[in-house]
Amino acid sequence: CDDQIIILDYLSRYLKTRNVDSPQ
Prior knowledge:
Shape: rod-shaped
Number of strands: 0
Low-confidence stretches: none
Largest sheet: none
Helix content: over 70%
Mean pLDDT: 81
Radius of gyration: 11 Å
Structural class: mainly alpha
Order of helices and strands: H
Number of helices: 1
């Protein structure tokens, strides 16, 4: 199963949204 890959992809998208929302 690819649970880890799915979680990593989800985290990547989440981090990208946060970066776009509040860039440092």
